[in-house]
Amino acid sequence: QITTLINHKDKPKRSDKTLQAIQRVGQAVNLAVGRFVTVGEAIANENHELKEEMSVACIEARRAGETIAQLTDVASLDHPESDSHITIFTDKTGVVKAARLLLSSVTKVLVLADRIVIKQIITSRNKVLATMEQLEKVSSFQEFVQIFSQFGNEMVEFAHLTGDRQNDLKDEKKKARMAASRAVLEKCTMMLLTASKTCLRHPDCESARINKDGVFHRMRLALEQVIEIVTDSRPNGENEMAPISIYSGIREFKNKVEGLRENLYFLSKENLSTMLEVILEHTEDFTDSAYTSHEHREHILELSKQAKMELEQLVSVWMQAQNQKTKDLMEDLEVAILKTCQCMNELKREVHGAATSLAADLLKYHTDHMVLKALKITGVEGNLEAVAEYTCKLSEQKEQLVEMCRLLRHVSGTEPLEITCIHAEDTFQVTGPQIISAAETLALHPSSKIAKENLEVFCEAWESQLSDMSLLLREINDVFEGRRGEKRVYLSLPRPGKHNANLKALKPVKLDTEEQAKIAKLGLELHLLTSDVDSETEKWEDQENEIVQHGQGMSSMAYSMYLFTRGEGLLKTTQDLFHQAEIFATEGTKLASALHALSDQVHDDDKPLLLLEAEKLISMCKQLQITAKASAQGKSATFTKVDACILKTRNAMTLLCQLLPLCCKLLRKNKTGNGCLKPAPPWKEDRIRTGTNARTPERRVDTFGIKSLENHVTNMTFLESK
């Protein structure tokens, strides 16, 4: 709104509509500042150490907002401008000054409020740590129940604070680290409960004590990492060492090589050689690994050798071009650059294939959890010898999975996915020994229900991490194939004369700020529906299913349309939007055909319902196509058409949200697929909602397992009776 005021054009003639619009914007800014400052003042009253600074910033902001309102009060401008009445038209510099003051003071308020939030999180962490120390020292179950109830409430508060903070983080790398730390805390809370109960029941058992100590240690590390992220600091002033992967190394190396086209002198040949050496050192993680296939190892070694040769040739031509910049030499340099980059791309493809094929094989091999099942059975039998045998097998499995995570990190493609791989590696490293100590405790006390429950909890954490690895592998493959960014983009933008005979006659139009505001609510509903559809499609194990494919395509297009309502994304004009709506309708019609095909496979009782839903979808898609193709002349008519297209898209997405679970249910019922549904891990951040009617997309990341944690606290009396 401030930008609108600053950028308004000075026209000799101003209509009443223009004057009223300017006044409305000025009043809206002042009202928004008033609401903002009210919150700032309330925060100041609750935090005396920052009260003075916050109050000064709030006063400045309020004054600037009032100044803007006065300068835009142009309703009484029915007299000549020579009048003493000062407005935006007679003193535009005054508005600029007020806007600068406003932005400066608002920034101060935000920074001060941020310091208070950080302090709240640190205080909450300190409470949790203090209660954890008490929990470690308890000697009676009754005392443990009381303290754990307090601990649970404190963890719920910490969860709320860190969940809000995670939503506010703009750095994707920090957001991924925060998600990993909060996932550890969520899982460890239940582990701490059962491990402590086991230790209390069997106080002289060494393996039970080791098991409990491991949980407390891991929780403390996770709490410390949250504070590091929140305060943007490292203990003892250490600098954070960013993990170096082959992908990031290749990306940086290629950027430097391609930069030679613009500047032959911006780096030295030693720099390039060093960068390649680092990349090739990392490939040794693959060639030295016992789990890399012979074929992949040979190809990686060959490509490493070729990369060195290509760089030598590039450096030779590059040095000559620095001395004598002839056309022939520049052409030779271009060829050398292309050959070097092509070689690095092939190396990248080879290590990706080696890592992902290993991961797919291991995850498939360990999907039956046979070792965990055997540990549970032999533990209940009290068979120490058999437990020792299976703990060795679990240790071998752990080493395989840790190696898999290390190799996947090299090919993950993005920093958040790299961090997720590191988190997975740590989880397997820590959880493996904890399962072993829990199994040994059960074998020593085979009739202990609490020891059995404790082993179950640690085994579930292992199984959950394996399940998460399948999702992670899919994301890594998506990045490699270019299917993943913030959101998949599914576009088929119009080209003049190709898709629409009348396109040349139509002037591309963008929505202005006022129109975007009107359509924002509808766009937001569309965004929430795409999230719901994505959540449903991710539950299908068979991601190649035709219904899933069409559903994902429709969701991606709907997301692009949502971005359009915000003035973002690749749909730049209304004509782009209308064409996208047509493609969306076509995709919906294809989905309806897939539903008809499915109806032939289901029982007669289920067929009418499925056919009815398919017909509804066909009808909606036809209506959307008619609306998208209809001509619209003038700004008002065009906006009405935009509104209608998004409304009809939203209706189709609502139906899609109902169709996907129905289809999966019918497939399961008729046993036509191998387990169509896969349970989503409970802690996954992007699965959790604050409520079924949530209206704000940012609230999708809720506090970790708060519902389950609150249930633990509420049911402590029941746990004691057990």
Outline the structure in words.
The protein is mainly α and 722 residues long. It has five domains: 1-75 and 89-113, Alpha-catenin/vinculin-like (Four Helix Bundle (Hemerythrin (Met), subunit A)); 134-231, Four Helix Bundle (Hemerythrin (Met), subunit A) (Up-down Bundle), CATH 1.20.120; 246-358, Up-down Bundle (Four Helix Bundle (Hemerythrin (Met), subunit A)), CATH 1.20.120; 367-481, Alpha-catenin/vinculin-like (Four Helix Bundle (Hemerythrin (Met), subunit A), Up-down Bundle); 513-671, Four Helix Bundle (Hemerythrin (Met), subunit A) (Up-down Bundle). Helices cover 74% and strands 0% of the residues. The protein contains 22 helices and no strands. It has helices at 2-6, 16-46, 51-71, 92-137, 141-168, 172-201, 206-231, 246-259, 269-287, 294-323, 327-365, 370-381, 384-410, 415-444, 449-480, 513-538, 546-565, 574-599, 607-629, 635-670, 706-714, 716-721. The chain is globular and about 90 Å long. The two termini are 61 Å apart.
